[in-house]
Structures are given as C-alpha cells and as structure tokens.
Amino acid sequence: MSVLNVDFDFAIKLSSKGAFDPNGFIRVINKIMTHHKGPIFRFVLYIPYEINLDSFQEVDQWILILSRNSVKQFILVNSNQVYPLHSSVFSCMELKYLGIYNCIFKPPIGFEGFPNLQSCNLMNIHFGDNLGGTVINLPQLKMLALDTCGNVKSFNIKALNLRTLRVISCLDAMSLPLLHSERLDVVQIRLLKSKVDFPRVERFNLAVMLSKLPMVVSFTIDGYFLKFLAAEKFPKWLPHEAKCLKKLEFQSFNFGDLDQLEGALYMLQNSPDLKGLHVTHEQMGPDADLELTSNHLESHDCLQTLFMLQTVELTSLEGSRPELLFIKLLLDHSPRLENMIIRPKATTDTEKRYNIAKDVMLFPRASSKAKMVFLDPQP
C-alpha cells in the first residue's frame, strides 16, 4: 500500500472502539508503520486533541520511517499541542506536496530546500529563526498558502516559479522577496478581524503592496484588509499601474464602509486591463454609513472608464442604495461589458429581489452588448 490515510475519519473510528486510552492511538499507528512494507507515496496523519502526548517522540519516529520511504505527499493535521516538526521531514527530498497544521517549522542548519516541492499549504505555523540567513530553495514551487502563521519573515525562500500565493492573516508575508517572482500571477489575501496586528497593519498601504506585484494577473482581497490598507489613505496614482491584472475579486466587502469603497474604486482606477470583477457582499452592521458611501459614489470622477471590463459578478446583494449606485457606476463606465451577473443574498425575499432587478434594468449602459443575468440566491 503506497497510500496511508491516518486521517480524521480514521481517528473517529478509533475513538468509537475505545482506542483513545493513554496508549491506544499510539499503539495502533505504531503497528501500521512498523509492519508496512514498500514505499509510502502519500501519508496523511491527523493527531486528535484527545490524545495525551507527553512528548512527540512517537510522531518523530513515524516521520523518520516516512522519510525513508520515498514520500511524495505529506499532510500533518495536528489538533494537539504545538508540534516542533522533526528534522527528518527536511530530508524528504522527493516531496511534491506538503501540508502541515499547528507546528513549529525550523529547518536544520545546512538545509537547502525541497528540490521537487510543487505545492505547500502551511496553517498555524510558527517559523523558527532562520539561522545564518540561509535561503530555502524551492525551484519547482508553484502554489504557496500561508494561513495564520507567525514569524513569516524568517521563512526566507527562493521560489522563482511561484504562480499562486494565498495569504490569510500573515501581514509580514507581504515583505517576502517571493512577491517579486516574475511568474507570480494569482494572489489571494484575507485578514481575519480577530487576529490583526494593528501597529504592523498601519505600515502598509495599497500602493506599496501593488508595486510589489507588477505581474499579478488575478488578485483577491477581502474588505477588512482593504480597510486597513486605507490607514495611510490612498494616493491618487500608483508608481506602476497594475497593467497585467485581468481578474479582481473583493470578498466580504461592505458597501457601507467608506474606506473599503475607496480602496475598491482605487484598485479599479489603476487596473486598465481588467476583464473580470467579482464582489461578494458582507452583511452590513450597525456602523454602516449608507448615506456617506452613497454620496461618494455619486460624486464626480470617482471612477474612470474601464475599457476592458467584460464580466461583473455581484454576490449576496441586499439591494441597498450604495450597492445599486455601484452597479449603475459600472454599467456607465464599462463600454465593453458583456455580462452583469447579480445574485441576491439568501435571506432576501421575493419582492426585494424583484425590486433589485427592476431598478438595475432601468440603468443606462455604456455597452450595447451588456446582458443582465439574475441568479437565484445562494443557500
């Protein structure tokens, strides 16, 4: 068997059989690993929080066995105490996929990198200090995801073939040199509201971030991150326009927040070759100022002509005034628009959905080919 899934479902079965006694879980995995013959190309290990681990010696031993069996895909989901990743992981030179959760990632001195790693997903990882400034070489890496990781600045990597970068609540990842990769064309950034390092956020602005991504083709950012990037207020121009940007997505976007709205319009103004726009609206809270954002959308010159925009998709709309004004603005400034796709929020009643459609259909359109597509609410 070249694939071993000691995953969540496996742990549930062990639990139902009473194997979560002090030695049950460890004994079962020990038997699996010590009796296995032949290579292990894919290994998935889930460590439940119910297991009492005085140390991770057994886990270290399993990974040591794994490192000697030509592993190509390794996934470790640790729901127990934080695990200092064993050094034998860094001898798995055939790895193509690495996914780890809740660990300390500290390569041994002299570690040069994973020559075959193509995809890497790191969640709740703390990076140890990079002794001597050693660069981790990942020549085949195409996708990197960093989710709520600490001390990312010590993750000093060289990944010239990186194509996709996903970042959740790791603001210091924005300073990594990999952002200058000439092949990086998909960037997704989210900021969890409960995990914001306020002093560090205020050192960023959108102009600086986009200047680091001159070749990005697809860019996703959530509204909360947009708001904090507005801390230094947006300049009226970028040192370098995002000329390669073709697809832009705003997630958890609040049309009642002026900072978010200004940030979105600022990015649209500086994306001359944009072809696709997707906005997912977030339910507006009590601090939403609909009058303020509506007045801004009705002001002169808040948006220039989007000559290349062809498709717009707006999801979870509530039918508020600023939402409708935003649609009107896009229709009026998009001479090549082909499809305007609107999907109301699931809780929107039938009459409200009808009113949204009726209002939007009356808006003038700069494009004679623009089609209005109204979809059923998402569940």
From TrEMBL:
<dbReference type="InterPro" id="IPR006566">
    <property type="entry name" value="FBD"/>
</dbReference>
<dbReference type="Pfam" id="PF23622">
    <property type="entry name" value="LRR_At1g61320_AtMIF1"/>
</dbReference>
<dbReference type="InterPro" id="IPR055357">
    <property type="entry name" value="LRR_At1g61320_AtMIF1"/>
</dbReference>
<dbReference type="InterPro" id="IPR032675">
    <property type="entry name" value="LRR_dom_sf"/>
</dbReference>
<protein>
    <submittedName>
        <fullName>FBD domain, leucine-rich repeat domain superfamily</fullName>
    </submittedName>
</protein>
<dbReference type="InterPro" id="IPR053772">
    <property type="entry name" value="At1g61320/At1g61330-like"/>
</dbReference>
<feature type="domain" description="FBD">
    <location>
        <begin position="301"/>
        <end position="375"/>
    </location>
</feature>
